[in-house]
Amino acid sequence: MRGVTQEQSAPRVGVVMGSRSDFETMQGALDVLRDLGVPNETRVLSAHRTPHLLATYAARAERLNLACIIAGAGGAAHLPGMLAAFTRVPVLGVPVQSRALSGVDSLHSIVQMPAGVPVATFAIGVAGAKNAALFAAALIATTDEATRARLDAFRAAQTQAVLDDPFFDGH
Ligand code: RP5
Questions:
Q1: Is 19 known as a binding-site position?
Q2: Nearest CA to ligand 1 atom 12
């Protein structure tokens, strides 16, 4: 029983960010993972400020057999690409909205990976963080029935919320 409990609480997704200042954005991913019951762990890792830690975390992700890593970063956002260089664990990149260029710099930095080292890239900001978490849940749902059921319920509730809106005319 103890072993089962440990296995259930072992992280399946890593949520990492380049700075504490990214937390407000990445909270969107953490909220979704919590609501869908996906065990996860969070780290601040910087491609620029803590490059060695980044490499260590990539090795940990493989050791834990994480389903994926959600990596958020802003500006010269090298974190997702560098993680992808160090591990075959799929990396889902979230461009954080930067002050100087509103996140377009982050988006371009993350999405324009050269062929051979892929990073799945999401929208700028909280929408991207939430969708990355939903995508992570969908990956896990391919082999985990409980996650599949929770994801289906989330989507059904989302649809129902539109149908229940008084402005919806039924057509
Ligand atoms: C990036 O630089 C981080 O991902 C963050 O979005 C940005 C700014 O970091 P701080 O100066 O706020 O720590 O590496």
A1: yes
A2: 21
